[in-house]
Design brief:
42% of the residues lie in helices and 19% in strands. Strand 3 and strand 4 (175-183) form a beta hairpin. Helix 1 packs across helix 6. It is an alpha/beta fold. The chain has two domains: 2-136, Arc Repressor Mutant, subunit A, CATH 1.10.10; 161-249, Trna Endonuclease, Chain: A, domain 1, CATH 3.40.1350. It has helices at residues 2-8, 19-41, 47-59, 67-74, 78-90, 119-126, 130-134, 143-157, 205-212, 246-249, and strands at residues 94-97, 113-116, 166-172, 175-183, 187-193, 220-227, 233-236, 239-243. The strands form two sheets. It has a six-stranded mixed β-sheet, sandwiched between helices. The chain has a two-stranded antiparallel ribbon with strand order 1-2.
Length: 250
């Protein structure tokens, strides 16, 4: 069910389609965007390179964006690719998840992470189907699509909250927090996404460090490991393990 949810995405006309038909429909959708929507924002002289850029972005979901590496992969100038990213974000196909920082200047010192608004489109561009998620050969699967799904569900829920809050990510050396939700009053919720039905206290070690020893000491911070199990568990006084399904059943 989860894998089907990810590869189908949220476009209504993709629901229930077999893998090949869905990939063709997504490809046709992207062609329509390039032919009709993109020229309204900026002329595209290399539509094939634009398509390759979209496919490369789909393969980098959940990763920090390395613009130079992306440019090298599609053999296109940096300014051009940067403009294409702005276009794709303006058309609500991708989002860049900024790096969290604290202090009066709030300067983001890390690259943003990349997410697709629709997980199904990302999977089709990446050539990923349900079998690939169930028996992955790529070390980034199924973790990165699941992280994208968590980000997507949180983003959709934002208008339902009374207090405004923003989403970002954080990394320092070998420590990383997949998603940070920050609300007024110096309140933080730290999320680690784990593509497993089992969870252990050590899975929350980066969350625990951030809260007790890292920059979270100056905030009202709590944490959660989002995992594929069925039960909510307490891993420490400040950290829970929460089933992924709670994002759309609670």
């Amino acid at each position: 069910m989860l894998h089907e949810w990810i590869v189908q995405g949220g476009y209504p006309d993709m629901m229930g389609l077999p893998d090949r038909a869905r990939r063709l429909r997504h490809s046709g959708y992207l062609d329509g965007v390039i032919e009709k929507d993109v020229p309204a924002l900026s002329p595209i002289r290399k539509p094939d390179a634009f398509r390759r850029t979209a496919a490369q972005l789909a393969a980098r979901v959940g990763q920090e964006l390395n613009l130079q590496s992306l440019c090298n992969a599609v053999d296109t100038a940096r300014d051009t690719v940067a403009n294409w990213l702005d276009i794709l974000e303006g058309l609500h196909l991708i989002r860049r998840l900024g790096a969290w920082s604290h202090g009066p200047t709030r300067r983001e010192v890390r690259s943003p992470k990349l997410h697709f608004v629709d997980s199904g489109l990302a999977c089709s561009l990446r050539g990923v189907d349900m079998d690939d998620l169930a028996q992955p050969r790529d070390p980034l699967l199924p973790g990165s699509p699941i992280e994208n799904l968590v980000w997507s569900e949180l983003t959709r829920s934002r208008p339902l909250h009374q207090r405004p809050w923003r989403l970002c990510h954080w990394r320092r050396d070998r420590r990383e927090i997949d998603i940070i939700a920050e609300a007024p009053g110096k309140r933080l919720v730290l999320l680690e996404v784990k593509a497993s039905s089992q969870v252990r206290p050590t899975d929350a070690r980066h969350l625990e460090w951030f809260i007790s020893q890292g920059p979270g000491r100056d905030f009202h911070a709590t944490g959660a490991v989002i995992y594929l199990g069925a039960h909510t568990l307490r891993l420490s006084p400040n950290i829970l393990a929460i089933p992924l399904t709670a994002l759309w059943t609670s």
